[in-house]
Amino acid sequence: MKRVAGWAIFVLSLCPVVSLHAQTIDEVYKRALSEGGTLNFYATLAQINAETILPAFEKRFPGIKINHVDATNDQLAARVIAEARGGRIIADVFQTLLEGLMRVNAQGLFLDRLPPEAAAYPEELKGTNWVATDMIYIVPAWNTTKVKKEEEPKQFEDFADPRWKNRLIAEPRDFQLLQGLAQYKYKSDEKAVALLKRIALNNLEFHKGHSQLAELLVAGQAAACLTCYAHHFPIRQRKGAPVGYMLTEGTGDIDGTAVMKSAPHPNTAWLFARWVASEEGQKVYAQGGRLPAHPKVEPVEKSRPAKVYPVGEDAIKDFPKYEKMWKEIFGLR
User: What separation in angstroms does the CA of 197 have from each of 134, 170, 189, 310?
Assistant: First the structure.
């Protein structure tokens, strides 16, 4: 009963727009401290990034510890939906790719509010209850000890060459690559499908999880990756990993943050949502190796492809179509 009452007070405090915008982050922090000092954070934030970003939040707001539940995009969406159907909301904040956000949003599980910091973002980088946190770029990458300098790919078409046979890995759910190529590069489903069918002849090996793909490359268990995340590699390069990645072109996706409607720690959740959307929080994400979505915050790493084929909220309606085509091309279940 105490938690429900606290949540009711929180909701009421958010109702007037003036009140919502008048509260400073530090005022929200004071309210958050009364909730037990825990934030249940369901996020596809790779550990190599999380080890910089999450301690920075905890240092900025002493007394609050983050319980980071890390899994893939679809696993987190399925988990939070299953928990809600079971009558339990455990997550405070949900942060994942736009596809996962839309799946959870369709169940009506998000607080239908935006933090005041969202005003700085363009319309395509926010909804009624989510704000873009960082940009995700799907690009090819390779192990430099297994790929000669003259072999390094310059475009996706290069992977249709038979020299890549039995040397490629990829994520089985990255149908956004097909969609980006079809809708933006070729403006033709047929041409995009034809390219990927040629690439499929090289017998790609599929592994779930982009962090795992990156680690497989670092370990030399594959020569190249067709669908890796660009932001995973600068940090690894600085640590001496023998990896390279392609920045001539790539598919762009949005990673966003939303607050759960019945979050067990509502003020703590709202605190994190405001911080992560602020310039302060976005600079921390940049320092942690991510590509900040805030228009005034520049990325630290060089991870944005010269040509980006974006897959935004408007493209989500076509996801089932391209996912089906992708699975058929590569023989995936």
Answer: 31, 14, 12, 22
Segment 46-95, tens digit of pLDDT:
898 999 999 999 999 999 999 999 998 889 999 999 999 999 999 999 99
107: which DSSP letter? T
Q: How many Å apart are CA 276 and CA 253, to the nearest integer?
A: 18
C-alpha to C-alpha distance for 307 and 261, rounded to whole angstroms: 37
- Identify whether 295 is part of a domain: no
- Establish if 239 belongs to a structural domain: yes
- Residues 227-272: tens digit of each pLDDT: 999 989 998 999 999 999 999 999 988 999 999 999 999 999 999 9
Radius of gyration for the alpha carbons in the chain, expressed in angstroms and rounded = 21
Q: CA 206, 159, 47, 299 torsion: positive or negative? A: negative
Which residue has tokens 């030399």? 220
Is 203 a member of any domain?
yes
Q: Which amino acid is at 258?
A: A
The model's pTM: 0.76
What length is written for the chain?
A: 333
DSSP of 186-223, one letter per residue? SS-HHHHHHHHHHHHTT--EE-S-HHHHHHHHHTTS-S
Per-residue tokens: 94: 């949900």
